[in-house]
Request: fold
Amino acid sequence: MLKKLLVTLMIACTASLVAPSSTAHAGKAEDTKRHLTKRAKSELGTKYRYGGGSPRGGFDCSGFTRWTFKKITTLPHSSMLQYKLGKRASYKRVHERARLKRGDLVFFKTTSAKVGHVGMYLDKGRFVHASSGAGKVTISSVYDKYFYGPRFRGGIRIPRLRG
Reply:
């Protein structure tokens, strides 16, 4: 009887270690997204600097997203290379932007390259980014009809943030 109880307990413990519940994973992902949002917003107003990757020296767009995600994963310091990571969450079409979730990276064609700018999606069409035009870290809209809206190229979800 005791042997049967021990075997049952071992199986139950092993199962919980091997396959965590999806709600536990989703909760952890939401905590991570809240942390990312707080970290990114803490740098609002930090100056823009081409090639920059720290609050002290200033940020460019990919340096800002790289710094924001630093405790979760390592991102390259290039918007084009970041664009090639993760799973596509949204494409160019306006109606597909509704698929974006907090923590997704959003990309724009602002130069002759396919992708020249990156930011992190917050909510309700807003994203936080290091803007050379504004000269600082700021919040903009992916639906902006004059600049970011027409240049939107898509969004990706970083694997550790799925859920």
